[in-house]
Amino acid sequence: MEKNILITGGAGFIGSHTAVALHQAGLKPIIVDNLSNTSMEMVHGIENIIQEKLVFHPYDCCNKEQVKSIFEQYPIHGVIHFAAFKSVAESVLEPQKYMKNNMGSLEVMLECMKDAGVNNLVFSSSATVYGEPDDNPVTEDTPFKKAASPYGETKQLGEDCIQSYCTENIHFNAALLRYFNPIGAHPSGNIGELPLGIPNNLLPLVNQAAKGERVLKIFGKDYNTPDGTCLRDYIHVMDLAEAHVAALRWVFGQNGTCQAFNLGQGKVDSVLSIIQNFESINGVAIPYEWSERRPGDVEQIWANASKAKNILGWETKRSTSDALRDSWNFAKK
Ligand code: UDP
Q1: Which among 214, 217, 297 is the best mutation to test ligand 1's pocket, defined by most ligand atoms within 8 Å of the CB?
Q2: Annotated catalytic residue: which of 98, 151, 223, 234?
Q3: What is the pTM for the complete model shown?
Q4: Minimal CA–CA distance to 42: which of 254, 152, 183, 191?
Q5: 3-32 burial, b if ≥16 CB within 10 A, otherwise e?
Q6: Do 169 and 116 contact (CB within 8 A), yes or no?
Q7: How far apart are the C-alpha atoms of 10 and 80, rounded to whole Å?
Q8: Of 86, 107, 76, 81, residue with least CA distance to 15
Q9: What's the confidence (pLDDT) of residue 169?
Q10: What integer pLDDT is reported at residue 196 of this predicted model?
Q11: Average pLDDT over residues 22-50
Q12: 102 C-alpha to center of ligand 1: Å?
């Protein structure tokens, strides 16, 4: 029988691509998303790709009755929990909003999983758990520094909370996936990164600048890096989506394990090099200006992702250039 996988936040950027990857892998996505930072366009985009009607419920993951009703309606074999607020910058301005939503929805999810006897969880964590690391690349054993933002704190606390839950529930399995910087889009152009309102992440802003809708601000020109701009490990969202399938397969084979995995390319690009690479691959100009450093940003971080390769059998197949091309292909539509 086809396994049902509950994807919370499944209409969001990473969730939607993961729904496609799950479908391709013969698993059935059941999507819950309150559309707080996305729209039904993404749900229809997934349906266009998979050529099938999706199970979708516009529920809020902080609402226990709504989440519980999903477990009552469908036999759920595993959960991928994406639903969370994700803007580093906004979290600095509104920390309580982040704490309440990101921790509240996780608590509801763990309670509902327990009531329904579901023992397999893949959790959306983030490289922000490392704070500003002393050394790069970071491995899963690199100690956590103080998170540079309240968003990062919610991911540190979320991981702690799941680790404790695993200790108390001896058959529970969890993969904590520490994403580096997801960019790109499905190559069909049907789904991509489409936040509501003013975006916060680099690529949606680069796309808007390429369309002449804004001048991109580069946050900080005097970091201690080769060109003075921040260094990040950018990963194609389809590579990331496929990592969720691999993680799910891994948790299904466990009996009482909780482990973290870094998901990145293991290489860095600076903000400036992303802009230059985008311009040359896509043949468009990005108007930009220099701006102050953004509060909550770390200077540089990149992944050692060999644990995911060794244990999950997953590695990236797509380059930064592939991601920049796919991102623009989606945005220009
Ligand atoms: N960034 C920038 N201008 C923008 C948005 C982002 O210079 O308008 C930089 C940001 O300072 C960071 C990088 O782009 O160095 C990636 O930022 P993003 O918000 O995409 O991800 P983060 O690493 O903060 O999670």
Answers
A1: 297
A2: 151
A3: 0.97
A4: 191
A5: bbbbbbbbbbbbbbbbbbbbbebebbbbbb
A6: no
A7: 9
A8: 81
A9: 97
A10: 87
A11: 97
A12: 21
CA dihedral 314, 320, 322, 326 (to 10 degrees): 100
User: What do you get for the CA distance between the two ends of the chain, in Å?
Assistant: 38
Helix pair angle (13-24, 237-252), 10° resolution: 60
* Ligand 1 center from residue 286 Cα (angstroms): 15
Residue nearest to atom 19 of ligand 1 (CA): 201
To which residue do tokens 């394990």 refer?
257
What is the spatial distance between Cα 124 and Cα 205, in angstroms, rounded to a whole number?
A: 23
Q: Model confidence over 107-120: pLDDT tens digits? A: 999 999 999 999 99
Average pLDDT, the chain: 97
Please state, in angstroms and as integers, the Cα–Cα distance from residue 181 to each residue in 56, 61, 114, 253, 321, following that order.
Answer: 27, 24, 32, 28, 14
Judge whether 151 counts as a catalytic residue: yes
* Distance from chain centroid for Cα 293: 23
Residues with Cβ within 6 A of ligand 1? Answer: 88, 181, 200-202, 205, 216-219, 230, 232, 271, 294, 297
Q: Report helix, strand or coil for 148.
A: coil
Predicted confidence band of residue 296 (pLDDT cuts 50, 70, 90): confident
200: which 2 tokens?
Answer: 């916060």
Q: What is the pLDDT of residues 88-114, one digit of tens each?
A: 889 999 999 999 999 999 999 999 999
Average pLDDT of the residues in 211-233:
98
Across the range 19-48, mean pLDDT stands at 97
Residue nearest to atom 10 of ligand 1 (CA): 219
pLDDT at 295: 86
Please choose, from the candidates 116, 111, 87, 84, the residue with its C-alpha nearest in 3D space to the C-alpha of residue 100: 84
